[in-house]
UniProtKB/TrEMBL annotation:
Cofactor: pyridoxal 5'-phosphate; Mn(2+)
Superkingdom of the organism of origin: Bacteria
Keywords: Aminotransferase, Arginine metabolism, Hydrolase, Manganese, Metal-binding, Pyridoxal phosphate, Transferase
EC numbers, comma separated: 2.6.1.13, 3.5.3.1
Family: Belongs to the arginase family.
GO molecular function, one term: arginase activity
Entry protein name: Ornithine--oxo-acid aminotransferase
Length: 404
C-alpha cells in the first residue's frame, strides 16, 4: 500500500466493524474488468464482487440507465405504483419463464422471501399444520447471513455465537439425491439448493443430481427452490445454472448481477400457485423494486438478451480450466467449476488459498479465497480472451514459484 492507501486502510480499521478482513488494496475506480487503487495501480478483477459485476465495472448503458432514472425518480416505496416496476417485473417473468416476481434488494432478502413463501405455501396449499413446515437445504450451502439463513448453514464459522436459530431448518449432503429423498417427510415444504455451490468452494454436483432432485421434489409435492444468486445470469455458461440439467425450479432466487454491479437488486420468482400465498402486508421492503433498481434491472435483462454472455462464459471458462489443468501445477488438488465460476482447490500442505490470493494481488490480480482452501476465479463475463489468457499465465507463474 502507498501512503494514501495505508491511511485509508487505517481509518477503516479504526471506525469500521471488524466483520471483514479485506486484502490490502484500496480501490478508487473501475472500468470494465479493471480496477485502480488510490495509488494509481491497475488490477484485473477476477472475482467481480462475488460474481455481482458480470457486465464489468461502470458499464456505460447501465450507468446511463441509473443516472437517467436518478434524475427522474429514485424512490416512492411500494405504497404507490411507479412507471418502472411493471416493466421490470414483466421482463423478469418473460426472461425466466415464471408467472410472478417479487423484487427485493440483496440476495439474502430474496432467500428469506423464498423461505417465507415456501412455509406459507406449505401451510396453505400442502396442508402442513401451522408452524410445522420444514425446509431442507444442503451441507456446505451459502445463502446469506441473517439468523434464519445461517440457521441453515453447516459452517460453524457462520453460526457460532448467533443462535438460537429458528426450528424446521434441516440439511442433507450436497450432491446426494437419495439423502434428500430419505429426509423428506409430509411436513417438508421446500428443498433449497444452489445448482453449483459458490461460497462453499465452487462445487459442481455429479451429473444428474439436480434433475433427480427435481423429480423427487415433484413426487413428494415439495418445492424445489434454486438459489441462483451467484450462478444465475450467465455466470456458469447458461442463463441459469439449472439449465445444465434441464431443470425448471418451482422457485428461483436471483440477485448480485441483476443489479449490474451498480446497486442491490434481487428477486424471488415463482408461479401463481406459490406466489399468491403472499397477500398485502405479508412481506416487503422500503427499497424493494424501487424505480432505480427497476430501471437498472430492466437494462441488465436487455443486455443479457442482446449479448448472451453465457456463451462467452462457457467458452472462456472451459479454456481457463484447460490451461490451468495442463500446467500441472504443484499443490493443486483440483481445478473445478463451470463457465466463469472457477475454483483452484489447493492442497493445504502446499499453500493457504488466502496467501495465494495475496500473492495474486501483488501480481495485479484481485481475487479472494473461499471455503475449502479454494482460490476463486470469476471475472466479469465481458473479459477479453487475451486478457484472460494473460491472467491464466500470471496465475500459473504465481503458483509455480510459490512460496517464491
Ligand atoms: N445466495 C448465494 C448463492 C450467494 O452466493 C450469496 C452471496 N455470496 C447470497 C445468497 C447472499 O447474497 P447477499 O450477499 O446479496 O445477501
Amino acid at each position: 500500500l502507498g501512503p494514501d492507501g495505508a491511511s485509508l486502510q487505517a481509518r477503516e480499521s479504526r471506525y469500521g466493524a471488524a466483520n471483514y478482513a479485506p486484502l490490502p488494496a484500496v480501490f478508487q475506480r473501475g472500468e470494465g474488468v479493471w480496477l485502480w487503487d488510490v495509488d494509481g495501480r491497475r488490477y484485473l478483477d477476477m472475482m467481480s464482487a462475488y460474481s455481482a459485476v458480470s457486465f464489468g465495472h461502470s458499464h456505460p448503458r447501465l450507468v446511463g440507465a441509473l443516472v437517467t432514472q436518478a434524475q427522474r425518480l429514485a424512490l416512492t416505496s411500494r405504497a404507490f405504483f411507479s412507471d418502472r416496476l411493471p416493466v421490470f417485473l414483466e421482463r423478469l417473468c418473460t426472461t425466466f419463464g415464471f408467472e410472478r416476481a417479487l423484487p427485493v434488494n440483496t440476495g439474502l432478502e430474496a432467500v428469506e422471501t423464498a423461505l417465507k413463501a415456501a412455509r406459507k405455501w406449505g401451510h396453505e396449499v400442502k396442508g402442513i399444520a401451522p408452524e410445522r413446515a420444514r425446509i431442507i437445504a444442503c451441507e456446505g450451502n451459502f445463502h446469506g447471513r441473517s439468523i434464519a439463513i445461517v440457521g441453515l448453514s453447516s459452517n460453524a464459522r457462520y453460526r457460532a455465537g448467533f443462535g438460537p436459530f429458528p426450528p424446521g431448518l434441516e440439511r442433507v449432503p450436497f450432491g446426494d439425491a437419495d439423502a434428500l429423498e430419505a429426509a423428506i417427510t409430509p411436513e417438508t415444504a421446500a428443498f433449497l439448493v444452489e445448482p453449483i455451490q459458490g461460497e462453499g468452494g465452487i462445487i459442481v454436483p455429479p451429473p444428474g443430481y439436480l434433475s433427480r432432485c427435481a423429480e423427487i421434489c415433484r413426487r413428494h409435492h415439495v418445492l424445489l427452490i434454486a438459489d441462483e444468486v451467484q450462478t444465475g445470469l450467465g455466470r456458469t455458461g447458461r442463463l441459469l445454472a439449472c439449465e445444465h440439467e434441464g431443470v425448471r425450479p418451482d422457485g428461483l432466487i436471483l440477485g448480485k448481477a441483476l443489479g449490474g454491479g451498480l446497486l442491490p437488486v434481487s428477486a424471488f420468482l415463482a408461479d401463481r400457485a406459490v406466489m399468491d400465498v403472499f397477500r398485502p402486508g405479508d412481506h416487503g421492503s422500503t427499497f424493494g423494486g424501487n424505480p432505480l433498481a427497476a430501471a437498472v434491472g430492466t437494462e441488465v435483462l436487455a443486455l443479457l438478451a442482446e449479448t448472451r454472455p453465457w456463451e462467452r462464459a462457457e467458452r472462456l471458462g472451459a479454456k481457463l480450466v484447460a490451461q490451468l489443468r495442463q500446467a500441472k501445477l504443484p499443490g493443486v488438488r483440483e481445478i473445478r467449476g463451470r463457465g466463469l465460476l472457477v475454483g483452484v482447490a489447493l492442497d493445504p500442505a502446499f499453500a493457504e488459498a488466502g496467501e495465494v490470493a495475496e500473492r495474486l494481488l501483488s501480481a495485479g490480480i484481485a481475487t479472494r479465497d473461499t471455503n475449502g482452501n479454494v482460490v476463486r476465479l470469476a471475472p466479469p463475463l465481458v473479459i477479453d480472451e487475451d486478457v484472460l489468457d494473460a491472467a491464466a499465465q500470471t496465475i500459473i507463474t504465481v503458483l509455480r514459484t510459490y512460496p517464491g
